[in-house]
């Protein structure tokens, strides 16, 4: 019986002294969130890795701590002037089972743009420090396609691994780039058609021009599976470069001339019969011939003979 008080004391210590999921208090949570927020600068961002659990839910997707840090680094590489602050220092903290849900309005500034987003963190106290379990913004928040969010940088990571065409496609005086997402060709299926231009795609047979600038909407070209992009410079005096898309097939090449700012065709597609008119270059098919004027040259069949015919197009 003389050991009973000692055992009771030990039980008390084990039960209450080692409970790591019990947060220290709202004051400490607030201090942690403010520290995390202030680390969102180019100079301090390297320290953010200490604030996260090994695996978290990051803007709706499961990510490791290393992946989160890589995304933060990419953010500051793209926008070195990025800063964020908690609007009016207003933080709402709700205690959950073993963690705290922290909600606030995040005011961001980057590249001359300022915006507010309803944001949240879920944090818990573990091994003597607070760690982030979840990070994100409200699902009904506006402008979730802004380039500061992980989804935009995931797309940029894909674009960076494909061939890029650079130009000022939105007329803001800054360089953008475009690339093409092509369909997958089913090489296991052989067609009985004698037309070499016919192929079998996995899924829908189409190509999509996508831009690094998310303000520019993707442009879809149906039936295209092999392509090449051209920067055609500013053709209609709107300050933005136009984009050319070559739809390349076994017996034809077709040039689409797009206004990148709205995806509109500036003229009917320019088709070249490459079996007859071989080795034609862009300058042979397309020329800018005056203010808001272009000359295009097409292959045309006249009386059983293929000829090249040119016409002047006046652009609106």
Structural commentary:
The chain is of the alpha+beta class and 316 residues long. It has helices spanning 4-17, 26-38, 65-78, 150-160, 282-285; strands at 52-58, 61-64, 83-96, 99-110, 113-126, 129-137, 165-167, 176-181, 184-185, 201-202, 206-211, 219-222, 227-233, 242-248, 252-259, 264-265, 270-273, 286-290, 293-302, 305-314. The protein folds into two domains: 19-152, Roll (Nuclear Transport Factor 2, Chain: A), CATH 3.10.450.50; 162-314, no CATH class. Strand 3 and strand 4 form a beta hairpin.
**Secondary structure tally, helices:** 5
Number of domains: 2
- Portion of residues in beta strands equals 35-45%
Computed structural class: alpha+beta
Strand order of the largest sheet: 2-1-6-5-4-3
Shape: elongated
The biggest beta sheet is recorded as: 6 strands, mixed
Compute the separation of the termini in Å.
99 Å
* Average predicted confidence as pLDDT: 84
**Which value, in Å, is the CA radius of gyration?**
29 Å
InterPro entries: Integrin_alpha_N
Protein name: DUF4440 domain-containing protein
Organism: Mariniflexile ostreae
